[in-house]
């Protein structure tokens, strides 16, 4: 084209080279600190410091790491604020703690602290909902621990959006995370959950923090569990057990007693329809008692009721018992449940549940000092489960003396009489003969 279409001048077009497809070059900047050999990096800044609440330290991997950001999420009323107020009171014995509440007034938190015995001179309360105000409190107090209750009630004027929205939650979390890393300040955030149990807010919220803990519990039960979902400083499958009482929340180092109706001195009373198994909740073995009740005969439409167990798995086990073992259940009502509000879903409890049903049907009580482990297949075979050694060690510690386990479990000496069983029918015939 010899003529410019804009100014209509001839011969005014100049040839230019086309730039390459490579992106813009990034200019080199000054590093914040020189790179060091990995063996020369100090470990003091990454060592966990205990919070004083043993069950929480168990889930955290030893305690709170300086600069770590922990997100504790749970349903309303489950006890998140009560637990963190206990943590704040314990940590105040070692230094200043700032508890920022955006959902309650400082007076409400004070009343709860009086009830639970959490008053301390180095525990400071601030009813704030603005990130800038929180930074001002940090500059004035220089605390050793910051607790924010909750992250969904905080906002910042630097970004648009309503309080609790995606933009605000992300911006506040980014700001608090940057403060934690810059000052080496451990920060604990309280998070809300949606109606399906997932953490409210953007998914990036869980990626920004270092530790994500799920606080679980049934409102009809006093048992509360803190479950690790993500942990950059320790195992992500640990579980801590607590009991919610009028005077506060108390850690349970040995929660198996809550799940055994015949625990302790009353365990000698044998009752048909009960069996004891050991379930693994994360890394933690816990004894659980399953119960069954078989009532009636020749009922046209018998009822099946399940509490604390997987209803589909219970239906499968009932079918296996009737087809492979010869236990008539199609015309009788069957009720199955766990004790203490515990939820058991893993297949390792199949053998205990099946024998509890047989015990209830034939009115024959199982030995009170026996634990049962094993997954039941559709052919009636008993299959292996993981962690048999750890399960049996926990049972032996609590006084159980005999166990039925799947074949090839590779069980070393645990101070118990251990029998390997390969078929459900074989187990039923042996127990009936004994």
TrEMBL record:
Single Gene Ontology MF annotation: ATP binding
Superkingdom, taxonomy of origin: Bacteria
UniProt motif RadA KNRFG motif: location: 230-234
Binding site for ATP: 74-81
Cross-referenced Gene3D superfamilies: 3.30.230.10, P-loop containing nucleotide triphosphate hydrolases
Entry-linked Pfam families: AAA_25 (PF13481), ChlI (PF13541)
Region (Lon-protease-like): 333-434
Domain RecA family profile, chain residue ranges per copy: 45-193
Similarity comment: family membership: Belongs to the RecA family. RadA subfamily.
Role: DNA-dependent ATPase involved in processing of recombination intermediates, plays a role in repairing DNA breaks. Stimulates the branch migration of RecA-mediated strand transfer reactions, allowing the 3' invading strand to extend heteroduplex DNA faster. Binds ssDNA in the presence of ADP but not other nucleotides, has ATPase activity that is stimulated by ssDNA and various branched DNA structures, but inhibited by SSB. Does not have RecA's homology-searching function.
Protein name per its UniProtKB record: DNA repair protein RadA
Lineage of source species: Bacteria, Bacillati, Actinomycetota, Actinomycetes, Pseudonocardiales
């Amino acid at each position: 084209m010899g003529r410019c279409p804009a100014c209509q001048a001839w011969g005014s077009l100049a040839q230019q080279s086309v730039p390459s497809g490579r992106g813009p070059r990034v200019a080199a900047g000054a590093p914040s600190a020189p790179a060091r050999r990995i063996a020369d990096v100090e470990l003091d800044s990454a060592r966990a410091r205990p919070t004083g609440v043993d069950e929480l330290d168990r889930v955290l991997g030893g305690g709170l790491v300086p600069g770590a950001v922990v997100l504790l999420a749970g349903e309303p009323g489950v006890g998140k604020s009560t637990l963190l107020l206990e943590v704040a009171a314990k940590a105040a014995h070692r230094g200043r703690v700032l508890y920022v509440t955006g959902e309650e007034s400082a007076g409400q938190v004070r009343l709860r602290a009086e009830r639970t015995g959490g008053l301390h001179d180095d525990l400071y309360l601030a009813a704030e909902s603005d990130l800038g105000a929180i930074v001002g409190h940090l500059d004035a107090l220089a605390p050793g621990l910051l607790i924010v209750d909750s992250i969904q009630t905080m906002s910042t004027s630097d970004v648009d959006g309503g309080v609790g929205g995606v933009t605000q939650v992300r911006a506040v979390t980014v700001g608090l995370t940057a403060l934690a890393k810059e000052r080496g300040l451990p920060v604990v955030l309280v998070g809300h959950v949606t109606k399906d149990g997932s953490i409210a807010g953007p998914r990036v919220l869980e990626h920004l923090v270092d530790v994500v803990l799920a606080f679980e519990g049934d409102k009809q039960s006093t048992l509360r569990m803190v479950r690790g979902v993500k942990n950059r400083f320790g195992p992500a499958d640990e579980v801590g057990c607590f009991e919610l009482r009028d005077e506060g929340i108390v850690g349970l180092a040995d929660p198996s007693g809550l799940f055994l109706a015949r625990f302790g001195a009353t365990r000698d009373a044998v009752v048909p329809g009960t069996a004891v198994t050991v379930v693994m909740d994360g890394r933690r073995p816990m004894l659980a008692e399953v119960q069954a009740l078989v009532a009636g005969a020749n009922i046209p439409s018998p009822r099946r009721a399940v509490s604390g167990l997987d209803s589909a798995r219970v239906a499968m086990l009932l079918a296996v018992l009737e087809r492979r073992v010869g236990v008539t259940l199609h015309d009788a009502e069957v009720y199955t449940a766990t004790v203490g509000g515990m939820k058991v879903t893993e297949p390792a409890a199949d053998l205990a549940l099946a024998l509890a049903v047989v015990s209830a049907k034939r009115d024959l009580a199982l030995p009170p000092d026996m634990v049962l482990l094993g997954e039941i297949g559709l052919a009636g075979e008993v299959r292996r489960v993981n962690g048999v050694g750890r399960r049996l060690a926990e049972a032996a510690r609590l006084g159980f003396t005999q166990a039925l386990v799947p074949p090839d479990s590779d069980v070393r000496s645990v101070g118990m009489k251990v029998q390997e069983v390969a078929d459900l029918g074989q187990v039923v015939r042996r127990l009936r003969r004994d």
